[in-house]
Specification:
Elements lengths: L2 H23 L3 E8 L13 E3 L5 E9 L3 E6 L2 E2 L6 E5 L6 E10 L2 E10 L35 E2 L26 E2 L14
């Protein structure tokens, strides 16, 4: 083996070793996610995060991670017993919207993923719907469970740091002054407004 090839091999091995160490020691990384099962509508594939389901459906949500030491699954903010990379859930026999959220953690941090499913027909869907399940607040490509485009939020104070929706909820951006006014287009003039923080 030529001397140059040996040095490149050792460098490649050292780089791979450092990369493996950073995965073990750092915040867990969600490498892949999917859901399957049920009699779904408006679901474009296993990676779709928002779609319609039917009462009694059994849906299995799965994630693949690097560096995760624990899994916390929540349905509408209520902790479930599962501490595994998958969670099987039965859709209740009622009309509603359910947020299935998973937090994968280690001593160095957490990563998140979220799905939102509903049994409501389109005629009963909220006029303004938002869960930030796609981890974005603008330049969005996903649709809501009723196949409607997601709303585009704007930041009022352009000189401030933009917000982040990476964890599936809106929160201040990193460092410096934070923007505190966000707007979304809506023509809703009356009705019931429900906010959860």
């Amino acid at each position: 083996m030529a001397k140059g090839a040996k040095i490149r091999t050792e460098t490649a091995f050292l780089t791979a070793l450092l990369a493996a160490a950073s995965v073990v020691a750092g915040t867990p990384v969600i490498k892949d996610f999917s859901s399957k099962g049920g009699r779904t509508t408006n679901k474009t594939g296993p990676k779709d995060r928002m779609y319609l389901v039917q009462a009694g459906d059994k849906i299995t949500f799965t994630i693949k991670t690097d560096g995760a030491q624990e899994y916390r699954w929540l349905v509408n903010k209520k902790l479930q017993e599962a501490n595994t990379p998958f969670f099987t859930w039965t859709v209740p026999a009622e009309k509603g919207i359910w947020e299935i959220h998973v937090t994968v953690g280690s001593k160095d941090g957490q990563s998140h993923r979220e799905w939102v499913v509903s049994t409501l027909p389109k005629a009963e869907a909220p006029n303004l719907f938002e869960y930030f399940s796609d981890g974005k607040y603008s330049a969005r490509r996903e649709t809501d469970p009723w196949a409607r485009p997601m709303k585009e939020w704007t930041v009022e104070e352009k000189e401030y740091n933009p917000p982040s929706a990476e964890r599936c909820w809106m929160e201040p951006g990193k460092g410096g002054q934070q923007a505190h006014a966000f707007r979304v287009p809506s023509k809703t003039a009356y009705g019931t407004w429900r906010f959860r923080f």
